[in-house]
Write the structure tokens for this entry.
Amino acid sequence: MPQVTLEAPDISCDHCIQSIQKAVTRLPGVAFVSGDPSVKQVTLDYDPGAVSMDQIEGVMEEEGYPVKK
């Protein structure tokens, strides 16, 4: 299962990370989500056969934390 780290500049606190974790882990194929607000990054393990990176990024954006590209 691949692990990816995404940069989301709007992350500012642990509550932000919790919101992202709650939303992203609802997606099928996402096994693990963690984050660090001090570096504004989210790390996750996911199954690319079950969920696309576009879907993950879309959910993060819906929560108010767009991914920096």
